[in-house]
Amino acid sequence: MTCRDLKINIERLMGRLRELGAIGALPGGGCCRLALSDGDRRGRDLVSGWMRDLGLEVSVDRIGNVVGLRPGRENGAPVMIGSHIDTVATGGIYDGCLGVLAGLEVIETLNDAGIVTAHPLAVAFFTNEEGARFAPDMMGSAVHQGALGLDTALAVTGIDGTTVGDDLRRIGYDGSTETGDFRARAFVEMHVEQGPVLDVEGTRIGVVEGVQGISWSEFTLNGVANHAGTTPMNMRCDAGVVAARIAIKARDIATAMGGDQVATVGVIDLAPNLVNVVPQRAQMTVDLRNTDEALLKLAEARLFDFARDAAASEGVELKRRTLARFEPVVFASGMVDLIETTARGQGVSTRRMPSGAGHDAQMFAPNCPTAMIFVPSRDGISHNIKEFTEPGHIRAGADVLLHVVLEKASN
Ligand code: GLV
Ligand code: MN
Ligand code: MN
Question: Is residue 2 scored above 80 in pLDDT?
Answer without folding.
Answer: no
